[in-house]
Amino acid sequence: MDDTLNANARAILDIVQGAKNHPTALEVYERVRRVRPHIGLATVYRVLHQLAEAGCIKELGRDSEGCRYDAHTERHDHAICTECGALLDILLEVGVSSEALQAAAQAVGVVLSSHEVRIYGLCAACQVKE
Amino acid sequence: MDDTLNANARAILDIVQGAKNHPTALEVYERVRRVRPHIGLATVYRVLHQLAEAGCIKELGRDSEGCRYDAHTERHDHAICTECGALLDILLEVGVSSEALQAAAQAVGVVLSSHEVRIYGLCAACQVKE
DNA sequence: ATGGGTGCAAATCCTTTGCATCTGC
DNA sequence: GCAGATGCAAAGGATTTGCACCCAT
Asked: Using the beta-carbon criterion (under 8 Å), do B111 and A105 form an inter-chain contact?
């Protein structure tokens, strides 16, 4: 999956995979610069798109900071803080029944390929601040 | 819920509620201009935030076109086209068990307030193009 | 020499902000 | 007259693009 990657792409993939959070393109840029100081921001964006296209990473939606990337490619769910926007990985033990998903998808003419549950609420840090 | 709104806010809320799709701020702006030609884009953004804050509408995540708004405030789910990004309302008849949601939220220290299921796949229009 | 990948800078796009003006009370 | 709302234009921030350059083939 990754032996075709060049040095920049390799470094970027390593960073996304090694990140504990879901880094934005800018965060990836800053981190990759420590290893490859001459890399340009445009290359980071280009490579992130390629990696997402290739399925090595996933592009999560944008929030106020920008687009976030996730190297955790197996199906999983997310918890999102309604206050600060923090995005945390979760895994629902009991998923949604796939018949229900299929039915809902069919109802709007969509060919189902995956799904994700998002739960919203206050994260631990924001509970304290309230 | 809306008798405290002024004319601009009223017009904007009407437009979001009357929209069949999930309009972006720019779309709302263009539509509200037909009714109130002097309105500024900044006011549209300000009012949309206020309405979202007040719970009259919901702010959906941003996609390539920008931030989308939804006047459909009851809990529901979405189908998202992986090709063109189209965002469609769906409702899963069989939801996720609330115990599972609670458990997952607790596991990451989040106080659960709502949830949403997202299904991904090709929308009808994009199936044809493939 | 050739083509893809790269860096830089400029351009774009959406969104926010500053500020002077206008409005309703 | 004042406080809040508004329009306009400028600023801000993320992402994309144009283009010349460089490297490996």
From this structure: no
Per residue in B5-57, pLDDT (tens digit) is 899 999 999 999 999 999 999 999 999 999 999 999 999 999 999 999 999 99
Whether B85 contacts chain A with CB within 8 A: no
Residues B28, B48: contact at Cβ < 8 Å?
yes
Amino acid at B68: R
Which residues in chain A have Cβ-Cβ distances shorter than 8 Å to B82? 113
Task: Summarize pLDDT for A83-114 with one digit per residue, the tens.
Answer: 889 999 998 877 778 899 999 999 999 999 99
Closest nt by CA–C1' to B44: D6
**pTM assigned to the model:** 0.91
**Residue A41: closest CA among A54, A51, A30:** A30
Domains of chain A in start order, with CATH, are: 7-70 (1.10.10.10), 77-129 (3.30.1490.190)
Whether B18 contacts chain A with CB within 8 A = no
